Amino acid sequence: MSTLNLFSTGKHWLRLTSLIVLITLVIGQAQTQVAHAATLTVNQTGNQTDSLDADNICSLIDAIQVANGATDSDCGTGDAGSDVIVLGNATYTLKANYGNGTGLPIITSSISIEGNGATIERSSTGGTPQFRLFWVSTGGALSLNNVTLRNGYAIDFNSIGGGIFIDGNGTLTVNNSSLVNNYANGGGGIYDWSAGAVTINNTSFSANRGGDGGAIYNRSTELVISNSSFSGNEAGNRGGGIYNFGGTVTLSNNSFSGNSAPNGSGIYNFGTINNNGDLTNDDSITNERTMQNNGPIQNNGTIQNNDKIYNSCTGTISGNAVNGKTPLGTCVTTTTLTSSLNPSNFGEAVTFTATVTSASGTPTGTVTFSIDGVSQAPVSLASGQASFTTSSLSVGAHTITASYSGEGA
């Protein structure tokens, strides 16, 4: 609460001080060397073959081998930079286990796959062996753009990562893509066991299945998911959408609906989750460790909190109440109050402005102004400020107060 003493008289004086600060900015030029990248165009659609020879065919399998360092005159030669593999708007079908329970060569170099609407799938033909689609391992950096991964089925290495498995220090970026109908005992869509960063943007996960983590099983400390949706995924035990086991997941503007699991149909957290944007939950979230909420959660399902959910100043949970332990507020604020006139003339309009600040971010909520102990209607904060104007002050001294009522405080 901030208090301001105001005196209303027949006259008032204002002193305005203007401070001009001159900043000299020196702009220089920097030089850097950029590693060149090769572009490898896949010209085989449908069933993909392994044919590193002069047969005028560059399959997806061939292109990944070339990017990893192999030679194929039909695909070209990979370079030291991040090689780009270009697909067309077609279906690329894998019918055999290339090795290690994976349909494609293990990614051990920096590769960007430009899908252009392509679908990479494990064949649904009867008798097709069971295998995941991608494995990103030490030294590998895979970027998937505008592609659908479908029908992966992991059975080796504890049956993890039906669509994608990441381990070692491998990194993964998925943009504008879909993972559909992939299966594994852990992480039907993605199993992240990497020390490297995994970033998922504007991607949908649907109809993926796993024992834990129907869509994603995370053990990494650097999983970031934004603007993505999880729907119709299923886990036999925990986390129909996401199972976070000892890792750190950062969420921004994601939605969970129609996922299923006996425990945490949307999210089961046994690590740390940071929510930094809108999260729409139509399922259930079970929290067994720490969840830091910096953005609004619209809870249309259930949240079972068995440990700690911390709400910052911008962290709100609306809709259904949280079950179990009450979320804790970490919003420490400072409120300052100023007046447009002090002193003022009788009958003049005076505007009072309250500014609320916090180290946790820009606060939201309302401020209640009081004149001589009489509360006025609450005013919502906008960019951390709220204002109240009156021309009804009587002659004499008045005490004005501003009380902040935070959302999630």
Structural class: mainly beta
Radius of gyration, Cα only, in angstroms? 29 Å
**Cα shape:** elongated
Beta-strand content:
over 45%
Number of strands: 40
- In round numbers, the mean pLDDT is 88
> Which spans have pLDDT < 50 for at least 5 consecutive residues?
7-36
Measured between the Cα atoms of the first and last residue, the distance is 14 Å
- How helix-rich are the residues, as a percent range? under 10%
Separate helix tally: 1
Blueprint (SSEs and pairs):
Blueprint: E1 2-9, E2 39-41, E3 46-47, H1 60-67, E4 83-86, E5 91-94, E6 110-122, E7 134-136, E8 141-150, E9 164-166, E10 171-175, E11 178-180, E12 183-186, E13 190-192, E14 198-201, E15 204-206, E16 209-212, E17 216-218, E18 223-226, E19 229-231, E20 234-238, E21 242-252, E22 254-257, E23 267-275, E24 279-281, E25 284-287, E26 290-293, E27 297-299, E28 302-305, E29 308-311, E30 317-319, E31 322-324, E32 328-329, E33 333-339, E34 344-345, E35 350-358, E36 365-371, E37 374-375, E38 379-380, E39 385-390, E40 396-406
Parallel strand pairs: 1-34, 2-4, 3-5, 4-6, 5-6, 6-8, 7-9, 8-10, 8-11, 9-13, 10-14, 11-15, 12-16, 13-17, 14-18, 15-19, 16-20, 17-21, 18-21, 19-22, 21-23, 22-24, 23-25, 23-26, 24-27, 25-28, 26-29, 27-30, 28-31, 29-32
Antiparallel strand pairs: 1-40, 33-35, 35-39, 36-37, 36-38, 36-40
